[in-house]
Write a structure and sequence with these properties.
Distance between the termini: 18 Å
Number of domains: 1
CATH topology: Alpha-Beta Plaits
CATH architecture: 2-Layer Sandwich
Largest sheet: 4 strands, antiparallel
Strand order of the largest sheet: 2-3-1-4
Shape: elongated
Oligomer: single chain
Mean pLDDT: 93
Number of helices: 2
Helix content: 40-55%
Low-confidence stretches: none
Length: 86
């Protein structure tokens, strides 16, 4: 998920936004969540997450729920979202 946060002025501030968001999503959904790209760009937040299941419907539901939770838990603007199933 690619977010733009123009109000973030430093990497330290970016970390203060990302860290609690990532930790809450991990606890709530039991998924792996991390910042995956653009770590040196303080206005762009790129969050990736993964879940493992043998049920494709459950995986689809989990992806939608986690994505909605992350999007609704930040003031940053969602610019793009890419979903991949393996």
């Amino acid at each position: 998920m690619y977010f733009r946060a123009e109000w973030v002025k430093s990497l330290k501030e970016k970390r203060s936004v990302l860290k609690p968001l990532i930790e809450r999503a991990k606890r709530k959904f039991n998924v792996a969540v991390a910042e995956v790209e653009e770590m040196d760009n303080h206005t762009l937040l790129v969050i990736g997450f993964a879940c493992v299941t043998n049920d494709s419907r459950l995986a689809d539901e989990m992806v939608r729920n986690v994505a909605a939770y992350i999007e609704n838990s930040t003031d940053a603007v969602l610019e793009d979202s890419i979903v991949e199933f393996f």
